[in-house]
Write a structure and sequence with these properties.
By secondary structure, the protein is an alpha/beta fold. The chain has four domains: 161 residues, Methylthiotransferase, N-terminal domain (Rossmann fold, 3-Layer(aba) Sandwich); 113 residues, Transcription Regulator spoIIAA; 90 residues, Transcription Regulator spoIIAA (2-Layer Sandwich); 53 residues, Beta Barrel (OB fold (Dihydrolipoamide Acetyltransferase, E2P)), CATH 2.40.50.140. It contains 13 helices and 21 strands. The strands form six sheets. Strands 3-2-4-5-6-7 form a six-stranded parallel sheet, sandwiched between helices. Strands 17-18-19-21-20 form a five-stranded mixed barrel. Helix 1 packs parallel to helix 5 and helix 8 runs parallel beside helix 9. It is globular and about 65 Å long.
Length: 467
């Protein structure tokens, strides 16, 4: 792996903007307004990347459409975390042969984390000849150049060189929402959990300068954003690679001092780098949502060591205990993997007992999925699939009961929520802790904060009425 991070210069970015102008001219010469469709798989970081891809396409003169059929450009921004996600991509990529047959000038690109895997790139080259271009996450900023080559030369183009990663400031961005904004504060990961492909496809940790982050936050707030979610594979390690003396808690404090009525969220936190300073900063600032996603992955210290997580069960429970002590209203969510290679029944029961002790508001649950190139993929794994499925079902049953109990405790409370959309005849909103609320009301409320009294609860959501 290349471990030297590169900072993209303004001159290099200007060259890409020149390619945008050339592509726009290409279509004007043909008296045509082209369209583009971007499909996103995976995490919020991919969503943020797709907003930049749409921004570049818009700069190139494309209008953004919501379907692949008839689009002049289709971009599939992919996820490599789990095998199921990859198989979905390959299936949908194969289906695009039909859209391209009906619209021969359509150009198809694959990017994102899957494009950072050599085996995937080889498969695309050999088995998907209708794909015109592939670029990994490190080359997203060069998409205009890649697109221009495909349009003008008619040749398949692959930008998939191994890099530690880059930082490119100032790329145009077409956000999905003016109400909520994703703001990436760092990229990549240095943790190398034994089951995770992210460090291999997204490169090493690299933090954006705080001034650039603050300016982006100020801009989106000025444009009407009421919620900002700070993104990074491990936000808690923010600033370690910067010359300025700043950590993630300091950054949160700076953003919270920006004038305006808005909420700050963030993900994902790694327990290895979380601590009292972070939780105290959250507790002291009303603009920082009392919501924490803190993946524990396993309740067994032995399994955590095999995962290379750099904390044990006791350390994790200490963190949660302190966080809840300074934020009694904290909404806590997490990730957990069932069936890691070598996990015993007793170790699985340790995971169940941790869930019952912590009482999460919600969990994102996964059965172990081996990723080629990671250490866990070659570990001995004697547990049969049927047993893993049984454990998974039991874990979900335990957590769903806890979620339902916690949600019922909301009934009768009046909560300040951000009204963010509609669902049939109802409005939808999110509590400060990120819980979904459906309630009747005037659509003019969308985009504002409202006090909502909770009247009902299910495992997954709440219902309410204006208080």
């Amino acid at each position: 792996m290349n471990t030297k991070t590169s900072v993209i210069s303004q001159q290099e970015l200007d060259i890409q903007l020149e390619y945008c102008d050339k592509i726009s001219y290409y279509w004007r010469q043909r008296d045509c307004v082209p369209s583009a469709y971007v499909e996103t798989y995976g995490c919020q970081q991919n969503e943020a990347d797709s907003e930049r891809i749409r921004g570049l396409l818009s700069q190139c003169g494309y209008i953004i459409t919501d379907r692949a059929e008839g689009a002049d450009v289709v971009v599939m921004n992919t996820c490599a975390i789990r095998e199921h996600a990859e198989q979905r991509v390959f299936g949908n990529l194969g289906a695009l042969t039909h859209t391209k047959r009906r619209h021969p000038r359509q150009k198809i690109f694959l990017c994102g984390c899957m494009a950072g895997q050599e085996a995937v790139v080889d498969r695309i080259k050999k088995s998907f000849p209708h794909v015109d271009g592939v670029f990994n996450t490190h080359h997203l900023w060069q998409f205009p150049e890649i697109l221009h080559r495909v349009l003008t030369l008619g040749k398949r183009t692959f930008f998939v060189e191994d890099e530690a990663g880059s930082i490119a400031e100032g790329l145009p961005q077409l956000r999905d929402s003016s109400l909520k904004a994703w703001v990436s504060i760092m990229y990549g990961c240095n943790n190398f959990c034994t089951y995770c492909i992210v460090p291999y496809v997204r490169g090493r940790e690299r933090s954006r300068k705080s001034d650039d982050i603050l300016k982006e936050c100020q801009d989106v707030i000025a444009q009407g954003a009421k919620e900002i979610t700070l993104l990074g594979q491990n936000v808690n390690s923010y600033g370690k690679d910067l010359e300025e003396n700043i950590d993630f808690s300091d950054l949160l404090q700076k953003i919270a001092e920006i004038p305006g009525d808005f909420l700050i969220r963030f993900m994902t936190s790694h327990p290895r780098d979380a601590g009292k300073k972070l939780f105290d900063t959250m507790a002291a600032n009303p603009k920082i949502a009392k919501q924490l996603h803190l993946p524990f992955q396993s309740g067994s210290s032995r399994v955590l060591k095999a995962m290379n997580r750099h904390y044990d069960r006791e350390k994790y429970l200490e963190l949660v205990s302190y966080a809840k002590s300074v934020m009694p209203e904290l909404v806590l969510t997490s990730d957990v993997i069932v069936g890691f290679p070598g996990e015993t029944e007793d170790e699985f029961e340790e995971t169940i007992s941790l869930i019952e002790k912590v009482r999460y508001d919600a969990l994102f649950t996964f059965i172990f999925s081996p990723r080629g190139g990671t250490p866990a993929a070659s570990m001995i794994d004697p547990t049969p699939k049927e047993e893993k499925n049984r454990r998974f079902d039991r874990l979900c049953q335990v957590q769903n009961a806890i979620s339902e109990e916690i949600h019922k405790e909301y009934i009768g409370k009046a909560l300040r929520c951000l009204v963010d959309g509609t669902d049939a005849d109802l409005l939808t909103a999110r509590t400060e802790g990120g819980r979904l609320v459906r309630f009747p009301g005037n659509r003019e409320l969308v985009g504002s904060f409202a006090l909502i009294r909770i009247t009902g609860a299910t495992t997954w959501s709440l219902t309410g009425e204006l208080a």
